């Protein structure tokens, strides 16, 4: 059987039922992470002018590149062309050569890094719930340090079960729940910020340019913090590493690119509104002393039950977001294994398992073992490196430029055959250069954070 015929059969076997609503949910689930609650800190480093400008600029850049990628799902014709069901396939089809290998390295490195980071972040929110109850009971000065490790194990166990979801096409319900949770904890952060601003006698120091050099930070600290803040805001909008997979869930009518553009507009607009609300209101509430995360970093202590609910929403959201990022990894390895050993029963044989109230699950032993092993791996790495957020930041910085900016623009220039040195060509190239500088800033700032983390590094001693 020819590869083309095999592909057609595989493609026709997939039941695509996605709509603008499910695609928007996938985007919000991917884009709005618990990092939204750290944007007040980012704005504090940049000030009212720089923080607001960064939020607007990077939302527009992400919207532009997501539109460009939506038109690349089918190629060469945007409506009737062949599907590019993955980011790597999209790059290979349009750009060819070895660029798709670089794309795959960047994409899957970022996906692995995010799943590890989500494991750590979910554990931090679980710990924050325990700490919140402890502070409420014993006072704000009480010693309420708790190890993250047991909570990482709990999160990992839940992911072992959820990882048996067959594929990305069956994740819509989980993404919708996760998207609702992300709106929930963002809204709680906004409400708590407004309440703090409205407190009698509330007065905090804010400025147009953020922390003051020589008064609140040294010149060197200002530079590092500025780099990290800009990178944090830029990377907060990144969902390009799964945009092709999201578009591949859509029904063929109306055309997928039109629906994906609608979903991207809704998803990015929703994300931007919540980013701006959390970042700017959080800055107004805490000023230049804004904590790194005002739900897990205890910018608020009361009402403790509302903070617990906010952190519970974060945990539920990350449970879904982990799967959105992990499913492409599962699919890559499983597709390779099936091609490598097509006659091996361990790889291909399925056993029907009846699950009450759910239905019949077709269990494949290779998938069960491989997916469980991957979850165990991400959990162990998160436990081994308690400062892994800095490493994930480094991975994000390295992957932001190629995945969110470079490849979408290169595919657009190739697809429309834009003349060199035309006005639009020059604008696109300038945008690529600007984002490269931002990514470089993120790399430098993340490396500096890793160096600081190594000074107090103790394996499996995360608190």
From TrEMBL:
Belongs to the amino acid/polyamine transporter 2 family. Amino acid/auxin permease (AAAP) (TC 2.A.18.1) subfamily. One of its GO terms (molecular function) is symporter activity. It comes from Vicia faba. PANTHER family: OS05G0424000 PROTEIN-RELATED. This is Amino acid transporter transmembrane domain-containing protein. Coiled coil: none annotated. It is found in: Cell membrane; Endomembrane system. Residues 16-451 form the Amino acid transporter transmembrane domain. Pfam families: Aa_trans (PF01490). InterPro entries: AA_transpt_TM. Carrier protein involved in proton-driven auxin influx. Mediates the formation of auxin gradient from developing leaves (site of auxin biosynthesis) to tips by contributing to the loading of auxin in vascular tissues and facilitating acropetal (base to tip) auxin transport within inner tissues of the root apex, and basipetal (tip to base) auxin transport within outer tissues of the root apex. May be involved in lateral roots and nodules formation. Keywords: Amino-acid transport, Auxin signaling pathway, Cell membrane, Membrane, Symport, Transmembrane, Transmembrane helix, Transport. One of its GO terms (cellular component) is endomembrane system. One of its GO terms (biological process) is amino acid transport.
